[in-house]
Amino acid sequence: MNTTPEQPTPARARLQQAREAEARRAVVRRRVITAAAVVAVLALAGATAAVVGAARTPAAEPVPAAAPTTLVVPANASGPDGTLITYGKADAPHTLKVYEDFRCPICEKLETSAGTTMQQLADDGTYKIEYQLATFLDKNLGGKGSRTALNAAGAALNEGVDKFKAFHDVLYANQPDERKDGFGDTNTILDLADKVPGLKTDAFVKAVKEGTYLPWAAKVSTAFDNSGVTGTPTVQLDGTKLNIFPGNQPITGDAFKTLIQQSVGTP
Question: Does the N-terminal or the C-terminal CB of the chain have fewer CB atoms within 10 Å?
Answer without folding.
Answer: N
